[in-house]
Amino acid sequence: MILWYDRPAASWESETLPIGNGALGATVHGTVATERLRLNEKTLWTGGPGEDGYLSGNWPRPRPGAVEEVQRALDEHGSLPPGEVAARLGTPPTGFGAYQTFGELLLDVPDAPDDPAGYRRSLDLGDAVATVTYRDVDGVTFTREYLASHPAGVVAGRIAADRPGRVSFTLRFAGGHPGCEDVTVRDGRLRVRGALPGNGLRYEGQVQVLTDGGTRTDGDGTVTVSGADSATFVFSAGTDYAPEYPHYRGPDPHERVTAAVGGAPPYDELRRAHVADHRELFDRVRLDLGEPLPDLPTDQALAGRGSGLQALYFQYGRYLLIASSRPGSLPANLQGVWNESNTPPWECDYHTNINIQMNYWPAQVTNLAETAEPYHAFIEALREPGRRTAKELFGTEGWVVNQNTNPFGFTGVQDWATSFWMPDAAGWLVRELYEHYLFGGDEGFLRERAYPAMREAALFWLANLRTDPRDGLLVVSPSYSPEHGDFTAGAAMPQQIVWDLFTGTLEAAGVLGVDAELRERLRAALDRLDPGVRVGSWGQLQEWKADLDDPRDEHRHVSHLYALHPGRQLTSPAHLEAARVTLGGRGDGGTGWSKAWKISFWARLRDGDHALKMLTEQLRESTLANLWDTHPPFQIDGNFGATAGLAEMLLQSHAGVIDVLPALPAAWPRGSVDGLRARGGFTVGVTWASGRATEIRLTSALGGIARLRHPGSGVLAVPTEAGRTYRIMPVV
Ligand code: FUC
Asked: Which structural domains are found in the chain, ordered by start?
């Protein structure tokens, strides 16, 4: 599982190779004369407390009564253009901020060959190590190696040659915020320290250079290594950000960074521990789609889009999730952790109408549940400011978050007409907490973490649903189908989210045996809730309560299929058929994440060929040479969505049954997968040939009955014991 190229990266966005430990990220250019490593620290954000006029939780609000006015106008007119609603409910953002770049580490190499022989730049997904090798005119082979260690909290590198005394370079730092930071050098340790303009967030980075042989000289902002056998560097960084409302500030990073850099073990040991830590997660899933990966540079293999490359792309999504989301920092943002700009697209923030959710779709099913911890913590940290927004914007209990959020608990509204209003987003976010319980069965997690967040999101909707004068059903109003059409009451997506939230909260309360009275209220509300699932005039699933859908509309958001995926509300053949008609109308285009979502939609419709067509389209049109997904521009959600979609083709368990190979395309006649997870605490492997399962491997973590859709004999109830693996041979 290696990405490799025969030339250095010319473009940060489309060619560099990413490494990361969740909190820190680096991208490798591999240029011979000047190596460039773009560095990132995930909490380095402008905006929030400290920014002019910004007071935590106290975002500008629409004037009192404005929400009710819009509700009444919708009752009367049926719909309102987004611009009109934004004029009444939107407020210009203040102090939202943006994710910042940390800067670049540069290594200037004297006498570097212009046209080095044997050049190769690679990223080994199994070891999580990036490597650059080349030969100089004397035939000396140079090897540079880079990794980002989670256990050590550092990015580290080693520069070596196969002849003694040949390693020479000058290391320097190009700051992300010139004028705001100081660079000092002492004893081979370069230190950068600064405070961001605006919010004054303090940050620090340190890099220690060590040599084996040769000399090391401190310069003005530089460390020079001459004639060494090899050299290593260790980098760490931090900020004084803390994920705590309302101040969002913690201790100065100086001590932590000093300890991480000073305490890092010798390189070989650091590398061993890093590889072991990474492999413990990465190696859990093995996938073989029948064809090997062609022995070609990855950009050329990408052009072929064969099943070997598809398997690599799947594993790359898992690699990227491990690299950009580990406990102890923020969740993966629109670019994971990698960012070269201080004004990145969409602030490189957390969008809640598909993007952050999609980032975590692969976490449970591809056996990386630990990577979801930063997302869980982030959702929980939104509750307190979200509670304040519920009170001040809607005058009720519960918590809400709107269309986009940041590390400073922003739960208010902005004024970008087509993307500011999404009070249903919290209901969508908490479903991930519930899924974590459904997959792993950790009742303590359900009780302490998932249920309280779900319950409070449900309370918000119990207090805020309105009776629709058209039919007496309970609807969300004003409601908006993300980035599309007019505001109405009862658009499909918000209704489906509320259905999903109430259903999950009811189930969870049942499991925990709590809140009898609340359960009654949820049941009563579900009885009156408009389910948001309607078949329209051309056989489509309606996006709005009124039949407004245009069969030629190819909008990238297909929000009204939430009930199909990630939800589980669509079960009847008639509704599934309507979803198929809707997808047919929307077509196979769209941005990277849109194509990725369609993989899962088609997989849920059990159409493996169409799911594979979407994956192929994504690889053809929305994938850069470094296999990053492009919206355009680079946006990582599509990587994660496609990895989850591919898993969804091989295994589903959302409907109470473990369903193996539900959407196997004809182009993958044989293969095998191991380590995918199904809800109920099961790990599933399957080998298939001629398009049919020949062996299913089921490992039970919790014991209990596994309900398995059995090729040949319907649904099989397999009694399991915790810790045991069962091999099941399908009847042919
Ligand atoms: C949503 C999408 C856009 C983009 C942005 C970051 O608003 O509609 O296409 O992905 O998020």
From this structure: 2-44+102-283 (2.70.98.50), 54-86+307-652 (1.50.10.10), 671-728 (2.60.40.1180)
